[in-house]
């Protein structure tokens, strides 16, 4: 019996990278012993290791001298990118590989449906677009908030491809009017809506892990002042562009920009409908 998915993370500076890898190897030895006792197997041939950091830090790593990650005497190679629960992570978290993979998946799905484009009714094509195209673009999009404008434009073009499939449009036909007919949000707003939906769950669902809840605090929550009743969140202190694009900061920005009536929604379903309607009215 094989273990399905095991992940180990360690934070480290460049100077202490060797020590971090040594600690991971200790964890790997413990996992090996535990799996042996319980009859599980870990396949190191299908395992990968990656060092993630800034471009400057990655450029200074001496790949020939750093120790290997070892499992049962087998070295696990360091890779430029790894796949984690369907999300592709590269060394600098630039999302270049992930956006490329999304594009390939959408084009593969499109190629299989293009020959049926003239025969399918529009409601069927809308259903197929939701299941085969938008599901790919929406998956885990709240986790990569630091996409560049060029990457976001690529994703927007992929959504436009789905709209052209539905209405039989040519390559250079404008799609804005048709997107309005479908009541689809632009790709940036779709992601914002997913970020807000996730934040709503963090704030109000009882089973949300405490390490997530503690990242968000309402203004005046301790003293019970009016700002707490207005459901305004404290903005986390941030200085860098990288942190500004993090979920903790971006989610608070989007939340505080919503009308109070939406923030007071009694359930996630009501909240999602209200956010979408709000964005459709203001963006269209």
From TrEMBL:
Residues 1-76 form the Reverse transcriptase domain. This is Jg13048 protein. It comes from Pararge aegeria aegeria. The gene is jg13048.
């Amino acid at each position: 019996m094989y273990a399905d998915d095991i992940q180990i993370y360690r934070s480290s500076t460049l100077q202490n990278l060797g020590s971090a890898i040594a600690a991971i190897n200790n964890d790997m030895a413990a996992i090996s012993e535990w799996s042996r006792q319980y009859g599980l197997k870990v396949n190191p041939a299908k395992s990968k290791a990656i060092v993630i950091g800034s471009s400057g830090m990655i450029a200074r790593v001496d790949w020939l001298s750093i120790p290997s990650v070892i499992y049962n005497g087998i070295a696990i190679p360091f890779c430029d990118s790894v796949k984690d629960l369907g999300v592709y992570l590269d060394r600098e978290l630039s999302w270049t590989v992930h956006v490329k993979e999304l594009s390939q998946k959408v084009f593969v799905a499109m190629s299989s449906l293009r020959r049926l484009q003239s025969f399918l009714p529009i409601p069927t094509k809308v259903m197929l677009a939701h299941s085969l195209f938008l599901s790919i673009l929406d998956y885990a999009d709240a986790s990569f908030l630091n996409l560049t404008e060029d990457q976001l434009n690529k994703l927007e073009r992929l959504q436009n491809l789905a709209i052209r499939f539905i209405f039989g449009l040519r390559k250079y036909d404008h799609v804005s009017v048709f997107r309005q007919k479908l009541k689809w949000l632009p790709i940036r707003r779709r992601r914002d809506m997913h970020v807000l939906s996730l934040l709503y769950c963090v704030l109000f669902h009882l089973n949300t892990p405490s390490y997530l809840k503690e990242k968000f605090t309402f203004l005046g929550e301790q003293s019970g002042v009016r700002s707490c009743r207005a459901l305004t969140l404290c903005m986390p202190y941030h200085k860098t562009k990288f942190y500004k694009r993090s979920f903790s900061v971006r989610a608070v920005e989007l939340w505080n920009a919503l009308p109070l009536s939406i923030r007071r929604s009694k359930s996630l379903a009501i909240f999602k409908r209200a956010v979408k309607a709000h964005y459709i009215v203001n963006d269209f």
